[in-house]
Amino acid sequence: MKLPRTRTFLVMAAAALVAGCATGVPVSQSPIANSKVPDGKARIVVYRTGIMGAAIQPVVHVSGRETGKCTPKGALYVTADPGQHTISAATEVRETSNLSLSAGETAYVKCSIGMGLLVGRPKLDLVPAAVGQAETQKLKVTGQY
User: Fold this and answer.
1) Which end of the chain is flanked by fewer CB atoms within 10 Å, N or C?
2) How far apart are CA 115 and CA 101, in angstroms?
């Protein structure tokens, strides 16, 4: 049986979306997500709830250090020294967000992909801890750095 072209396209598009989503341990079951921040350190959680632009997964840098990708339905956990940090991600443009962390603090940075000229553009928003904790519960851990 031959599928009509439109149906074939829809099946392929759905498969591409699923393939672009995060794989791994759910945040709610992850040891890193549920552990205390190490003494004298801070934590940054960069996460992406949406699947819009799933094929676009820019690399996330924390203070110039490559940490992971902005993956749909995924969260990455970065242990950092207290102090000032710059979070960045780039496609056709570089997006940056600055934050200051105290020892024991966890900051949440929400990554999303917006419209760009040729490629979707990353957007990084610092969100309140309560919002970040709630939004990450249904995501998967994509890395620990």
Assistant:
1) N
2) 30
> What phi and psi, each to the nearest 5 degrees, are found at residue 53?
70, 35
Q: Please give the model's pTM, rounded to 2 decimal places.
A: 0.82
Residue 135: phi and psi, rounded to 5, are -70, -25
CB of 99 within 8 A of CB of 71?
no
List Cα–Cα distances, 117 to 69, 71, 91, 92, in angstroms: 21, 21, 11, 8
Over the stretch 1-55, which tens digit does the pLDDT of each residue have?
Answer: 554 554 444 344 444 444 445 667 888 888 888 889 999 999 999 999 988 878 8
